Amino acid sequence: MLHTVNKSPFGNDTLETCIRFALPGDPILLIEDGVYAVQARNRFGAMIETILKKNPLFALQPDLSARGISVITSGVTTVDYEGFVELVEQHQVNSWL
Amino acid sequence: MDFVQDMNIKKIMHVLRHAPHGTIYTYEGLEMILIMATYDQDISVVFIGDGVYALKKGQETSAIGIKGFAKTFSALDGYDVEKLYVDQLSLDERGLTEDDLAVAVEVLSSEKIGTLMKEQDVIIQH
Amino acid sequence: MNIGILLKEGPYNHQATDTAYNFAEAAIKRGHTIDAIFLYNDGVLNVSKLMDPPQDDRNISTRWTAFSQKYGVKIYACVVASKRRSINDDVLIEGGVITGLGTFTDIATRNDRLITFGD
After folding, report:
1. In a domain? residue B102
2. Strand C2-7 to strand C113-117: parallel, antiparallel, or no bridges (unpaired)?
3. Quick one: pLDDT at residue B78?
4. Backbone dihedral region of C57: left (phi > 0), alpha (psi from -120 to 50 degrees) or beta?
5. Which of A20, A26, A95 is nearest residue B125 as measured by Cβ atoms?
6. Nearest-CA neighbor of A1 among A76, A60, A79, A87?
7. Is C84 a catalytic residue?
8. Tens-digit pLDDT profile for residues A15-69
9. Which of A1, B38, C18, C34 has the most CB atoms at less than 10 Å from its CB?
10. What mean pLDDT comes out for the span C99-105?
11. In this structure, what DSSP letter does residue B109 have?
């Protein structure tokens, strides 16, 4: 199952909640304000590292670019909208709002 | 008569994560669930985070001028929607127990709810 | 693959509409079929033709009309949610259809995927 998260972790516990329910191996895709979670050197670095031990983590490149985020936490994969579609091809979707 | 599982029956899970009244998401979520319940699908409803407040006993909304709807969740039983699940940790974090809820539910661990999510054909977060 | 889209937020206030649109375009480009867009909650405001943003901004309702006409995809708005928010046939864009949640149930069950965009 693909989980999408669209909220900044600074103002919202959506990412935290999502990872509590995601099963090992489920990919998680950060979109919209969700991408702030993977800006390098922010305070969520350790949390991202923990997530990556269990789940592949993706961030939508157009949303990173739109927010001026050029350096992201290592281990996170960037995808464009086409990559987003590819993830949806492979998995049912759980869109955390 | 043998029951043959209809291939057209889908497993659909509704996830309610917003508190009632402050926003309309949970109320309109309930409206959607009530309609979908009339279509012979395998429906479950899960309350996570502030969504558990929608079930809190003793909600008295007349003074805010908004219709209360906690007890309407009980009506789902009449539509064969019997799978109402509440996340244990969400209750714990809010100092609530099953006794604080106005509707009969099944309280489950996050792991169990996560496993149920994985089994769904469709998940709708409200 | 057949994909249904549920859009739960109105235009401009949230990026949800734009993400839904960009996703739908990308899915079609990869050879998939977008079965329908279903609008719920404030999402129903997407089909108002009264929308008139400043010239230098995208016009979200005309963008949905163009999308609908280009690919033959209907943009459905829930009738109960629409009535709450002043959306009726008089203000409806081309390609928009006001319908019941039964239509949404069909969209949710007949497709390979349902993906939700909202807040």
Report:
1. yes
2. parallel
3. 86
4. beta
5. A95
6. A87
7. no
8. 999 999 999 999 999 999 999 999 999 999 999 999 999 999 999 999 999 999 9
9. C34
10. 98
11. -
Q: What are the residues facing A77 on neighbouring strands?
A: A58
Give the CATH number of the domain where residue C36 resides: 3.40.1260.10
Which of C116, C107, C37 minimizes the C-alpha distance to C72?
A: C37
Question: Can you read off the two tokens belonging to residue A68?
Answer: 């001026």
Cβ–Cβ < 8 Å for B56, B100: yes
The confidence band for A95, taking pLDDT boundaries of 50, 70 and 90, is very high
Give the CATH architecture of domain A2-96: 3-Layer(aba) Sandwich (3.40)
The verdict on a CB contact (< 8 Å) between C100 and B35 is: yes
- Residue pLDDT, tens place only, C26-65: 999 999 999 999 999 999 999 999 999 999 999 999 999 9
Residues of the domain holding B47:
11-125
Domain range for C11: 2-117
**pLDDT tens-digit profile of B64-118?**
999 999 989 988 888 888 899 999 999 999 999 999 999 999 999 999 999 999 9
- Rounded to a whole number of angstroms, the distance from the CA of B95 to the nearest CA of chain A is 18
